[in-house]
């Protein structure tokens, strides 16, 4: 960490490409680190009508294999398999999740399977994996849902301090690919802006690696409206 901070002035705001380049140059871990964004929003998270949540599909994915589980039957089962789902089923699949034989990253369900999925609340709920129609994970369009999940669709939700914590890729990505993923996330957040949120919506953006330092992004270098 001493070597890291010799190269990064944590009080400075960095042009997005410069900041990402610094993170890549100061990554000394022996594994491929995630690149994470912390985005401070101009919301009052104590007010239910100001909380922000949704999904985003990154153009360059997350750089990791996503295990997608689909609860459906008949024709949709074949569509799910053809689209790349790792596990497809109904009661048999529910038993595997209860027994912890499968650890999914994304769970998708067709509406006719929700009577089975609903019983998995204690297993999926704590991990934020319960299918939800608002997030597109309860759907009749199983094919698109699976394809988006495999591409690296990311679920975001602000914490109690009004901050979004989100992975935007890993350190092996190019600076431009990480930038495009970040911009995609910011545009998704802007579309999710609560009507009761006033003033500057996206107030501060920090980027960091799993084991490294954090850099503050100069918002003007992004060339998009953050209001």
Description:
Helix content is 30%, strand content 22%. It is built from 8 helices and 10 strands. It has helices spanning 2-7, 16-25, 75-82, 91-98, 114-117, 121-124, 142-151, 175-191; strands at residues 13-14, 34-41, 53-57, 68-71, 87-89, 106-109, 153-157, 163-170, 202-209, 214-217. The protein is globular. The model has no long low-confidence stretch (mean pLDDT 90).
What ranges have pLDDT less than 50 throughout 5 or more consecutive residues?
Answer: none
Strand neighbour order, sheet with most strands: 1-10-9-2-8
* End-to-end C-alpha gap: 35 Å
- Described by the principal axes of the CA atoms, the overall outline is globular
Counting DSSP E segments of at least 2 residues, the number of strands comes to 10
Query: Helical region count?
Result: 8
Q: Strand-and-helix sequence, N→C?
A: HEHEEEHEHEHHHEEHEE
**Major sheet: size, sense and barrel closure?**
5 strands, mixed
Mean pLDDT: 90
Task: Give the proportion of residues in helices.
Answer: 25-40%
Radius of gyration: 19 Å
Brief overview, please?
30% of the residues lie in helices and 22% in strands. It has helices at 2-7, 16-25, 75-82, 91-98, 114-117, 121-124, 142-151, 175-191, and strands spanning 13-14, 34-41, 53-57, 68-71, 87-89, 106-109, 153-157, 163-170, 202-209, 214-217.
Task: List the SSEs and their pairings.
Elements: H1 2-7, E1 13-14, H2 16-25, E2 34-41, E3 53-57, E4 68-71, H3 75-82, E5 87-89, H4 91-98, E6 106-109, H5 114-117, H6 121-124, H7 142-151, E7 153-157, E8 163-170, H8 175-191, E9 202-209, E10 214-217
Parallel strand pairs: 1-10, 4-5, 4-6
Antiparallel strand pairs: 2-8, 2-9, 3-7, 9-10
Helix pairs in contact: 2-8
């Amino acid at each position: 960490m001493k070597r890291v901070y010799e190269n990064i002035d944590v009080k400075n705001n960095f042009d997005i490409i410069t900041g990402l380049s610094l993170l890549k140059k100061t990554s000394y871990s022996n594994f491929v680190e995630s690149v994470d964004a912390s985005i401070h929003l101009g919301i009052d998270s104590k007010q239910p009508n100001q909380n922000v949540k949704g999904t985003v599909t990154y153009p360059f994915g997350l750089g990791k294999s996503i295990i997608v589980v689909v609860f459906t039957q008949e024709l949709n089962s074949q569509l799910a398999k053809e689209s790349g789902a790792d596990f497809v089923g109904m009661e048999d699949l529910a038993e595997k999740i209860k027994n912890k034989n499968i650890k999914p990253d994304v769970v998708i369900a067709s509406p006719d399977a929700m009577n089975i999925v609903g019983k998995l609340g204690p297993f999926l709920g704590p991990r934020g994996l319960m299918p939800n129609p608002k997030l597109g994970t309860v759907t009749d369009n199983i094919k698109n849902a699976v394809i988006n999940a495999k591409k690296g669709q990311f679920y975001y939700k602000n914490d109690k301090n009004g901050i979004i914590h989100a992975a935007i890729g890993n350190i092996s990505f190019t600076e431009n690919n990480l930038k495009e993923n970040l911009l995609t996330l910011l545009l998704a957040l802007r579309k999710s802006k609560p009507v009761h949120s006033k003033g500057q919506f996206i107030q501060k953006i920090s980027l960091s690696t799993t084991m490294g330092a954090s850099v503050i992004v100069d918002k003007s270098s992004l060339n998009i409206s953050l209001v």
